[in-house]
Request: fold
Amino acid sequence: MSLEYKTKQLADDVTLVEVSGRLNAVVAPDLKEQLKAAAKSGNARLIVDLTDVSFIDSSGLAALVSGFRAARESGGTIKLAGLNEQTRMVFRITKLDHVFEIHPDAEDALASGFGES
Amino acid sequence: MPNKEVRNSAGPKARRCRLWPEDPDARRRLRRWGFRILAIADVTIGLSYIVWRYRSSINPEALWFALPLVLTETYSYLSTVVFSFMMWKPPRRVAPPPLDDATVDVFIATYNEPVELVKLTAEAAARMRWENLSVYILDDGARPAMAALAEEIGCGYIVRGEEWAGKARHAKAGNVNNALLQTSGEFILLLDADQIPGPDFIERTIGYFRDPLLAFVQTPQYFYNIQPGDPYGSASPLFYGPILQGMDGWNAGFLCGSNAMLRREALMQLGLTGYVEEMEQRVQNALSGMERDLAHIRPDTTAQRSALASVGQAVTRAHRALKAGEPLDIVTGIVRQAVVLAQADVAQEDLASIVEDLRAMAATGDETAGEAGKIMEDQLSEIAREMVGTAPTGADAVGLSRKAIEDLGLTRADEAIPVSALATISVTEDFATAMRLHAMGWHSVFHPEILAYGLAPEDLGSALVQRLRWAQGTIQVLIHENPLFKKGLSWPQKIQYLSTILSYFSGFFNVVYLVAPVVYLFTGISPVAAWSTEFLLRLLPFLILNRVMFKYVAWGLDTRRGEQFNLALFPIWIQAVLSVVTGAKLQFQVTPKQRQSGNYLKLVWPQLAIVVLTVAGIARGWLSVATGGSLGLDGVVANTFWGGYNISMLLPIIRAATYEPPSEWEARPPDFLFPDRRSTGTAGT
Reply:
C-alpha cells in the first residue's frame, strides 16, 4: 500500500494537496515527509483535500499535525477540506477539530483566505 | 519447553489441600471471599484501635512525640484500607486464543547497554512465533556497533533524526515516541534492552486485544540474575503478582515500561489529544499573557499607539473565538495577522522619521543623504514589509513577549516532534502514560505469566538509583497531573493512582516508627499514655490480623525482602519527595545492568545509625530496669520488641551494602530461550 498524493497550484500561492486511500500508519511517514517538503520548498499555504480518503487513524492524523507544524514554521498553514463521516469523527475524538480549520470543500477553504503572513 | 516452575508466578502451596475445589473459577471465588472476610475484619478492628488511640491513649504530656506517632499509625491504617480495597476483586486471566493477522513491531530500547546483551534480546525477539513481526533496535546511543548488530540480525535500527538536535530528548519516552512515527505495526511489544522474550510472548498476549478498547497488556518482569537470597530486593513477586492483579480488577493496572504489548492506535490517540490539550493551554496562556503585557506597555509614538490598540482588539477577539470553540488555527491567525500589520505600521513610521532626518541633512548640503532619503521615501512600504520579514515574530515591534507569539504559532517549537504518545512529564514515563490512557477510557490487562526474562541491578548503588528514579517519577505525576482531579478516571482508578503516589511519602512515617523506641529508651518519654495490657490487647489483634491478611494475599510468595526494603529504604523515599518538591532537576538514569563492585556502606549510614542507636537504647533501658532507674519494665519490654523488630528489618539492607556474590555464581537466562544452544550461556555479567 502506498500513498496517493497529488498537488495542484491554486491562486494566491496556495497549493491544493489531494490525498486518497487509507491514511494509516503504513502511509503516515510518507505523508509527513511530503507535507514537510512542500512547506519547506516555499509552498507553505496548503489545502489538504481529504474527499477521497476513506479512513484516517491516529498515525495519519499525527502526520497531518507534523505537516501543519512545518507549514506554520514556514509562515503558512494547512487547511483541511472534504472530510467524510469517519474522518470527521476521528478529528472530533482527538479534538484535532479544535486545531485545524476544516472546510466542506477546497473552494470554500480557498475563499476563507490565508491571511497576510 | 519452558519450565513450569519458573513460569508460574503464583505460589503452589494451596493446591495440595483436599478441600480445595478443582474448578479454577470456584477456587478463585473461594479465595476471593476468604480475602474479603479477612479484610473486613482487619479494617474494622483497625478502626476501633485507631479511634481508641486518638480518644484514650495519647500521652498529653508529650504531644510533640505522641502526635507524630498516632498520625503515622493513621497513615498505616489508611494504607491497609486502600490495600483491602485494591485486592477486592482480582480477575482470573487466561490467555485468549491469538488474533489472526495482527502486525506487531518489537521495540528494543537501548542507550548504553553492551551489544552482546542487546543481541540476546533482539535474536530472541526475532525468534518469536509470529507471522507479521518486525523487530527494531531503538538505539539512543547511536552506536555503530549496534547498527552493525541490527544488520547482522536483519532487524530494523532506529536512531533520533536531525529534528531532535538541540531539543529535549525525553530519555526512553522520547526514544519510543520517535520510533512510533517511523513504524507501522498495529501492536507494539515494548522491551528493555535486557528483557529476553520467550518464543510465545505475542501468542499469549495478543488475544486480549479482541477488546477494541484494550490499550495494553502488561506482563511481569522476571529477573534471571538475582543473586542468592535476593540481597537487593529486586524480585518483587508481590508487585508483579497479587498487587498488579488486584489493580487489574479495577482496570487500573500499571504500565511498567517493558514486557508490555500496546495498541498503536491507543498510543497515537493519546499523543494527539495531548497535543491538542497542550496547544489549547498554550494559546490560552499566550492570550492572557498578551493582555497583561498590553496593559503595561506605554507607547512612544502615534503609530505604536494605534498598533497596540489594534493588537489589543485582536487579542480580545481571539479570546472570544477561543471560548466559542473556534479552531486554534483561526484563533491564533487573528492575533498573528494583527501583529504583522501593526509591525508594518510601526516600521513605516520609523522609516518616515528616518526620511525626515535625511531630508534635514540634505538641507545642510549633504547630497548623499538627500538621495538616500528620496529612495527610501519612494519605496517606503516595500522597505517596511521587508523589514518585517527580517523579524518574523513581530514581538519586538509591539513590545510583546516572544514566547507568547511563538506559542501562537502552534508549532510546539521547543519539542522535536509535535505528537508524543508516551508521557514526558515524568522520569517514569510508563506510570503517567497508563494513567492518561485510563483517563481516556482505554482498558488494560495484567497477564500474570512470566513471558520475558531480564536483568536486575547487581549492586546496591544501582538498585538504589533505580528505586529513587521510580519514586521521583511517580511523585512528579502528583505535581503535574494529580490523579484526583484527572477527568475521565473512575474513582477506583483515582484511588489506585493516588495511593501509589502517596505510598512514596511513607519515608517520613517510617522514621517515626524507627526512631520512637530509641527516644523512649533514652529519655523515658513515652508517646502513649501507658504501656498497658489494654494497649497490647487492642494493638495485637490488629497487627496479627494485618499480618494474616498480607500473608493470605501473598499466597506462599516470599515477600520478606520487599517488606524489609519498604521500611529500610526510608532515606530514598524522603530524598525522592524532597527533590521533587524543591524542583531539583531530575535526570532519567539508565539503571546499570552490570555489577559495579564496591562497598556501599556510605549509602546506608542512616539505617546503620538507627541500628546502633537502637542497640544502645535497649542496653540502656535494661540497665535502667536493673538499677531501679526511671524506666518501667513494661515500657522497656515493649520497646525492646519494637526496636528488635526494627533492627531485623534494617539489617538486610546493611548486609546488602557489603554483599559479594559467591564466586561460582553466574547469571544465566533460562536455556529454553535458546533452542540452538548446546552449551551453557552467560549474559550480562
Observations:
- Helices of chain A lie at 28-40, 58-73, 85-93, 106-111.
- The interface with chain B takes residues 24-26, 28-29, 32, 57-59, 61-62, 65-66, 68-69, 72-73, 75, 77, 79, 93-102, 115-117 of chain A (CB under 8 Å).
